[in-house]
Amino acid sequence: MKPCNFTYIKSSSINEVLDVLDIHGEKAQILAGGQSLISMLNMRIANPEIIIDINFLKDVIALNIKDNVIEIGPLFRQLELENWSDLKSNLPLIYQSIPYVGQIQHRARGTVLGSICHGDPTSELPLCFLALNGKIHLKSKKGHRSIPANDFYLGPLLTSKNSNEVAIKLELPTKKEATGYAFYEISEKYSDYAIASFAVVTDNNKIRFALGSIPTKPTVIEWDIKNFKFIDELLNDFAWNLDIEDDQHASATYKRDLIRKVGKNTILSSIKNI
Ligand SMILES: Cc1cc2nc3c(=O)[nH]c(=O)nc-3n(C[C@H](O)[C@H](O)[C@H](O)COP(=O)(O)OP(=O)(O)OC[C@H]3O[C@@H](n4cnc5c(N)ncnc54)[C@H](O)[C@@H]3O)c2cc1C
Hints:
Blueprint: E1 7-10, H1 14-24, E2 28-31, H2 37-42, E3 50-53, E4 63-66, E5 69-72, H3 78-82, H4 87-90, H5 92-97, H6 104-109, H7 112-118, H8 124-131, E6 135-140, E7 143-148, E8 153-155, E9 158-159, E10 166-173, E11 180-186, E12 196-202, E13 206-212, E14 219-224, H9 231-241, H10 252-272
Parallel strand pairs: 1-3, 2-3
Antiparallel strand pairs: 4-5, 5-10, 6-7, 6-10, 8-9, 11-12, 12-13, 13-14
């Protein structure tokens, strides 16, 4: 199948993007790396009348480090982040997870912000964004807002970004002292979409446990580190409080078991990494 007809607009500035979004709203869609959008156009899951290509923007940042925060702009490719020599020391969670994002060819085109905005519940980068409780900066003709990861994901492929907004920057906190980071993913084979994915950040106060693929959106819970002795019960309660269904890959029983067992192992790895 091929996409429906659309008008293609090549933008060279954020203001140009905002002008188009302001007039056309939901009828327009931003094209970044195209690794998700093009498939959705071909399958006619998305039928925008206008495609705004942001690949030629000149007024955007690439990657900056500022006051213990990594800032990433809208055209920074996933592979550029993976190849960044300081990735492991600054963002150990992303370092562990990024090789699982599709194949190298997808990461060469796919942008970090595109993955965050797409909000696929099986995606690794939205899960890490949530585990790290980063921030996303959105711009529209009406102004600028910054949204914490905790408030960004609303449902499958659904975020709190409005149709008149473009994401201009992602903020992720750099590695903190006395903090452990761990990522683990279960899939049928390497680089397939995950059946379950776990991203954990543990420090002397709390365990922040993020779960992807099983719930309909990336989901996070925090426990006081003092309650670590009850971790089996906490994971069991968490698993039973989610609305989990059987699907073609796994039964609900198996998925709850993954949360209890693989979830616990990922927490233990994060503690070892402190
Ligand atoms: C075969 C295959 C396997 C894959 N496997 C995985 C996988 O295992 N894990 C994984 O995480 N991903 C996977 N992907 C998806 C890939 O990682 C994409 O790169 C990513 O989901 C989207 O990034 P993109 O830059 O290509 O965005 P696009 O496809 O261009 O856009 C995706 C969505 O985000 C919106 N958007 C993009 N940038 C902005 C912005 N700056 N502001 C506002 N909205 C924006 C677009 O309008 C669109 O709705 C796979 C893709 C393919 C084709």
